[in-house]
Amino acid sequence: MRHHELFIGGTWRRPTGAATIEVVSPHTEEPIAQVAAATPDDVDAAVAAARMAFDEGPWPRLAPAERVAAIRRLTDRYGERTAEMAEVITAELGAPISFAQRAQVGLPALMMGAFCDLADAFPWTELRRGRYGADIRIRREPVGVVAAVVPWNMPQFLIVTKLVPALLAGCTVVVKPAAESPLDALLLAEMLGELDLPPGVVSVLPGDGTAGGHLVAHPGIDKVSFTGSTATGKAVAAACATRLCRVSLELGGKSAAIVLDDADPQQVAAAVRSASLSNSGQICNALTRVLVPASRADDFVDALVTELESIVVGDPTDPATQMGPLVSRRQRQRVLAYIESGLDEGARLATGGVGMPDGLSRGWYVRPTLFVGDNSMTIAREEIFGPVLTVIPYADEDEALRIANDSDYGLAGSVFTADTDRGLAVAERIRTGTFGVNQGYTMDPFAPFGGVKASGYGRELGTEGIEGYTETKSIAVAGP
């Protein structure tokens, strides 16, 4: 599999440079594809095409219903190729095929249709009666040319939650996928090329950090939508600040599962496993700190150990596999270093550790790992982005809330309790952008998603996900 061209402004073009990206299977550690890497000159060409399409082309000036119709055509085409897309994502990322089908591809397909429904009901125009008698007309207009920069962990979900609302709002978009996951983005570009969109509306540019940095700092960009690490997000925000470019950031997390004393250990363990270890723990809203009452700590630790040790780890193409490898050698080394730090700082290893999972001799695998420690440890402070959880005992509910809020991050979190009202009261006291009661946060297409503190700002999904790609204009009309 070789991809020698870039999708620039709706057409396939040879890149201006000779650099390529080698895609390596996380399972076999062998190359599976080579794709063209965008250069700064290619970024310039894509932004110029998007700028022309926005400033002079028909897309921003279509009726919203016409843009919705185009995205519904994309939704239909996407639905026809979901099996192919899932196989591509499993190959490049090592995500188990069952998870790829259900979440990596199933969720984006769902989001496309949901965004179209939201756009159909969106208040693109509004009439108000002004204080001084004038009629006030409110218009939600497209923000302009958008740079959508996405990471590798949930690539299609993250592209769709940026690209689709931006297009529905009337924006033109340059998508920059991660170097680890270019293949699914190029497959999506094939589908976009079949829609007969106006020239310049969408570009897809695989590339390294140099291409991404050039894109987010480009003077032709009106808004940057970035998902990635907090460290990189700060650099993106700084680049946008110098020219007052709008920016939204969905960054890291260190979310807490607050387990109250009336919760059932087995139910908690199953829910935490699902919310924390899907995609080998490579999800930003994973519940990686599990706060349990000290008086029942052993019950919850034992249930979690049983749950983690039951996970089937192995070949991601096998439908029976529940956890695959991490995305890269570098990521595996990073996660193993965190496991070593937990041991060095005195955390108790309940299960897992640094060795390869049983029956595996190659691939970038990490054993599902559970520590018991405290909130001062590195494994409880920093985002690991792997299958590593830390149980933290607490004395009473007030201490649990203090521990949960004692984090630089504020992306997600959950509470587990037999009393829903008690859970809702806890939810109101936790400073995060999203929260779940008796479940991990579900990516419901109608619920806005985003964080506070070092987890970023701005919201995706829901009506807010479309609003983020609009500017509000008020027009006052004098009375007779």
Automatic annotation (TrEMBL):
Catalyzed reaction equations: an aldehyde + NAD(+) + H2O = a carboxylate + NADH + 2 H(+)
Assigned EC number: 1.2.1.3
PROSITE patterns listed in its UniProt record: ALDEHYDE_DEHYDR_CYS, ALDEHYDE_DEHYDR_GLU
Boundaries of every Aldehyde dehydrogenase domain copy: 12-475
Keyword vocabulary terms for this entry: Oxidoreductase
Stored CDD domains: ALDH_AldA-Rv0768
One Gene Ontology term of the molecular function aspect: aldehyde dehydrogenase (NAD+) activity
Family statement drawn from the similarity comment of this UniProt entry: Belongs to the aldehyde dehydrogenase family.
PANTHER family in the cross-refs: ALDEHYDE DEHYDROGENASE (PTHR42804), ALDEHYDE DEHYDROGENASE-RELATED (PTHR42804:SF1)
Protein name: aldehyde dehydrogenase (NAD(+))
Species this chain originates from: Mycolicibacterium hassiacum (strain DSM 44199 / CIP 105218 / JCM 12690 / 3849) (Mycobacterium hassiacum)
